[in-house]
Each structure stands twice: as C-alpha cells, then as structure tokens.
Amino acid sequence: MKTALWLYLFLFLAFFDLHAQYPILTPFALSLGAGPAFIGWMMGMYSLTHLPGNLLAGVLIDRKGSRRYIVFSLVTAGIILLLQAHAQLPWHLLLLRAASGFALAFLSPACMTLLASLSSDATVQGKYMSGHGIVHTLASVVSPAAGAVIVAQAGFSGTFSTLGWLLIATGIMAFFSVPKASQLRAIAPIPKPLKQETPTRFSRRYFLLPFFVSCSQGILFFELPLSQSGGGSKGILSTGILLSLLSLGALVTLSMFFLNRLAPAIRIAAALLAMAFCFFSLAAFSTLPIGLILFALGAAKGVLFPAMASLFISLGGQERLGRTFSLQSIAMSLGSFAGPVTAGGLRDEISPYFIAFLLLMTALILLPPGSAQRLSSAQGWKGRAA
Asked: Is the separation of the CB atoms in 354 and 65 below 8 Å?
C-alpha cells in the first residue's frame, strides 16, 4: 500500500502538470500565428508520436519493470516544457509537442502496470484502478483553472517553465521512491498457478473502444478552448473552469464505489450512451448551460475509464499487463491524433461535437455489451465490489 500511495502522489503531480496545459496550448499557438487546422495537427502530432513509445513500452515494461520508464517520462517531458517556454514560431511548438508525445508515451502503461502488479487479486486490482482514476480526476479538477490563473500572472513562458520544473522534480522523487522490479516481486509475489494456463485470446476489436473514446476527447480538447478563445485572458480562464467542471463530474462518479458491483461491460455501455448524448447536446442545443453538460460528460467518463481498465485486465491476464496496456495506449494515441485533425479539417462544415457523437454511437454499436459481458465472465469476473 505504501508503494501505491507514493505512486498516487507522483501521478497527481504529473497529471496536474499535464492538465494545466489544456486551456493554455491553443491560445499560445494562436499567439504564435497558428490557425485552427495547424492547431489540430499540433494536438494530433502529440498523440501520433505516442505510437512508437507505446510499442516500445509494452515489451520493455514487461521485461524491465516500470520504474525507469516512469522517471524517464517525467524528467524528459519536464525538459521539453522548459524548451517550450522559449518557442517563437508555430513549427517550434509542433516539434516540441511531438517530442513530448514520445516521452510521455511510457508513463501511462508503466503506471497502470505497476499498480496492477501490486496484487494478483482482481478485487484489490480494482481498488488500485479506482484509486488511479480518483487521483487523475482530482488533479484534473484543479489544474485547468490553476493553469489559467498562472498564465494570467506569469505569461505563457513563465507558466511552461514552472510546469517543466515541477515535472522534473516529480521524476527525481520517483527515482528514489518507486521500487525496482526485484523489490516489487518481494512486495507482491505472483502466485504460481496450479496448472499451466493457455494465454487468453480475445478479439482485438475491443481496442476500438479506447480509440473512439480518445477520439471524442481529442475533439473536445480541440474545440472547447478554440470556442472560448475570443475573450482573451477571460477566455482562457473560462476554458479552465469548464474543464475543471468536467473533471469534477468524473470525481463524483469515481467516488461511487458501489458502481463497481456491476460488470465492466454494463458500465461501459451506459457510459458510452451518456457521453454520446452529452456531445449531441453540445452540438444541437446552444441554449443549454455548457457547464452542466460538461459536468454530466465528466460523470460518464468517471464510470467509463475504471470499467475499461478492469475489462482489459481481465482479458489480458496477469503476465501480459504491459502489452495489454500498451495496446490500449496505442489505440488511445491514434484516437487522440485522429480527433483534433478531423475536427480541424471539418470545423467549417460540421460541428466537431457532432462528429464526437457519431464516433461514440459507433463504438456502442460495434461493441455490444452482451459479447463483452460473456468474455469478461469467462475470465472470472463475478461482479464483486472493487
């Protein structure tokens, strides 16, 4: 448990740093002379360069453990942010975001693998994954508004420098506190199975789920700052507050631990439907309060992500956690690339929010809860509280 608490602290600081940039990047790119299409490519490039990192992470984490890759991601991303503070042209920002995407590609698979490997019991793993979601959401509640406040006081350069040093300091703390692979085996040894088990095969179409979800998220993070950018510093602050409301909604449902009594597939289907209706409301009903819609969207995300992690743990097996989470991260990286690029190219023709609605409804149609339910039940999911 001590290892999990240390990891939660590092995750909080890292997620705080990363989410604080969301309301800042689009106005910063606009100040450098970038247009909407270029901004879409800039945000998509960050996700595209995740792919080689994700491919490497899946194999390396299973072989060598998570510690070194957590430290590498945090320190390298911090150095890149220090350089980003001095960007003068749009293509400078594009290259630095691409480099940051590769560096941070190792962080999520490494952290989730480390958390899942702290125990071989599915119930305890569920608790750790819920804790991961709560820490992530707590950081994202305060960080967008905090980033907007910092940029109002220190400007873009000062904000990126501050966030960069914070990431570097977090990486140094992780180097001294996260256990090595040998120490981790002593903390949570994996019991030997009574009989040799054949690695589970499951349809790769389940990785379409994180692809469509991250695609819709990328569209939201592209369109929301752009639609609020007309108000200058007030627009940045407004974007930060709205993103905080999104995360606050997720925090509410993440705290409802009784939801974990439901099988992952049921939670996934309900969350996808709720998210789709939220995006449809953003596209079709301009009179509805956007803060309320984003709060509901966040609440649906709070149901979806722990359920999705539990589903992939049950499908992938204990010995293939790194590869499973790496494939999940690859799917999310592809979606995060495709979403902003598509929205930037079609923004003048169709509402990006309606594109997100269509993607989520497609995910619900292609991934009917019945098939996933049978697969997760076959892996031993009993629907107990996590």
From this structure: no
For the chain, give the longest Cα–Cα distance: 64
CB 91 within 8 A of CB 42: no
Sign of the dihedral defined by the CA atoms of residues 335, 212, 237, 280, in that order: positive
CB-based contacts of 143: which residues, under 8 Å, 6+ apart?
Answer: 15, 16, 17, 18, 19, 20, 244
| pLDDT digit string, tens, across residues 19-78 | 787 778 888 888 888 877 788 788 778 777 877 877 787 778 777 777 888 889 889 989
What are 27's two structure tokens? 């106005």
User: What stretches of the chain show up as alpha helix (H) in DSSP?
Assistant: 2-19, 22-31, 36-48, 50-64, 67-84, 90-104, 107-116, 122-177, 181-187, 208-228, 233-254, 264-284, 290-316, 321-346, 352-366, 369-378
Alpha carbon 215 to its chain centroid, in Å, reads: 11
Is residue 101 within 8 A of residue 50, CB to CB? The reply is yes
Asked if 7 and 114 touch (Cβ cutoff 8 Å), the reply is: yes
Record the pTM: 0.66
Nearest to 326 by CA among 3, 16, 52: 52
- Give backbone dihedrals phi and psi of 303, rounded to 5 degrees, phi first: -80, -40
CA angle 164, 170, 173 (to 5 degrees): 145
First to last CA, the chain: 16
Helix axes 233-254, 122-177, angle to 10 degrees: 130
Q: Which residue has the tokens 């309301």?
A: 23
**Model confidence over 224-257: pLDDT tens digits?**
887 776 545 566 777 778 887 888 888 888 878 7
324, amino acid identity: T
